[in-house]
């Protein structure tokens, strides 16, 4: 006998509740039922499954310095570079980062010098999860350089991996 749409939908809802309990037990995740009640159960199921896959991958992976991940490239101290050389070096490093699924983007007017220093002095020293994902995380620099570090840290922690992988 074929199940009705409402029966099938109810089974998905029950499965979602079970999955939420598993995520809570395994990873300490608490779900506010009101936050997911408006989602169609099939969409919620896909969302919960993606969370579960990420959390499992997160638990199994090691961290690595961003600098190590991209192959420990040679680079010069910012102060030793001319404006032209700085621009060329910054492009080279940003391209290299992007090859490793790390994208740094500035949405406000931040000088090449500030971005170069951020990349070489801050980002290169960040430990990131060595996840084998195909998406990119766009790190947007739109703040004064003195608060980049704390903003970057909270952004990283909120996304559960250090730098540079996005969905």
Notes on the protein architecture:
The chain is mainly α and 167 residues long. The protein has seven helices and four strands. Helix 1 runs parallel beside helix 3 and helix 5 (83-99) packs across helix 6.
Task: Name a few traits of the molecule.
167 residues, mainly alpha, two-stranded parallel sheet, 4 strands, elongated
Main β-sheet, spatial strand arrangement: 1-3
Major sheet size, sense and barrel closure: 2 strands, antiparallel
Order of helices and strands: HHHEHHEHEEH
Instruction: Please give the count of helices.
Output: 7
DSSP strand content: 5-15%
Give helix % range: 55-70%
Mean pLDDT comes to 75
How would you briefly describe this protein structure?
It contains 7 helices and 4 strands; from the N terminus they run H-H-H-E-H-H-E-H-E-E-H.
Please describe the topology of this protein.
Layout: H1 5-27, H2 33-36, H3 41-60, E1 63-65, H4 66-69, H5 83-99, E2 102-105, H6 112-122, E3 127-129, E4 137-140, H7 145-158
Parallel strand pairs: 2-4
Antiparallel strand pairs: 1-3
């Amino acid at each position: 006998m074929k199940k009705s749409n409402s029966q099938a939908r109810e089974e998905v809802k029950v499965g979602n509740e079970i999955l939420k309990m598993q995520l809570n037990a395994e990873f300490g995740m608490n779900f506010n039922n009101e936050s997911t009640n408006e989602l169609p159960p099939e969409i919620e199921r896909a969302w919960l499954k993606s969370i579960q896959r990420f959390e499992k991958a997160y638990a199994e992976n090691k961290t690595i310095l961003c600098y190590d991940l991209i192959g420990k490239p040679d680079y010069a101290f910012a102060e030793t570079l001319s404006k032209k050389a700085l621009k060329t070096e910054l492009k080279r490093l940003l391209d290299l980062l992007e090859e490793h699924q790390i994208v740094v983007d500035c949405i406000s007017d931040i000088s090449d010098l500030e971005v170069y220093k951020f990349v070489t002095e801050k980002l290169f020293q960040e430990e990131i999860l060595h996840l084998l994902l195909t998406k990119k995380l766009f790190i947007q620099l739109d703040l004064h350089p003195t608060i980049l570090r704390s903003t970057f840290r909270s952004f990283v922690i909120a996304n559960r991996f250090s730098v540079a992988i996005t969905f």
